[in-house]
Amino acid sequence: MTRNQKYEQKQKAKGLKKVTLWIPDESEVEIKQMIEFLIDNPDHIPFMARNVRTGRMKKAI
Fold it and tell me: Are 10 and 18 contacting, i.e. CB atoms less than 8 angstroms apart?
């Protein structure tokens, strides 16, 4: 078993799922931070997003 296969098996054992997504370059850091937060706090869900130009919040559907 390769090192990567061991890593993926360990992540699956934690209840995580490998997903590939296309995201905007300018949002990469924030998206990674949100995902890390959700992994560390499994009782939370993403609910709203802030517009970077206006500062207004909008519900995620």
Answer: no
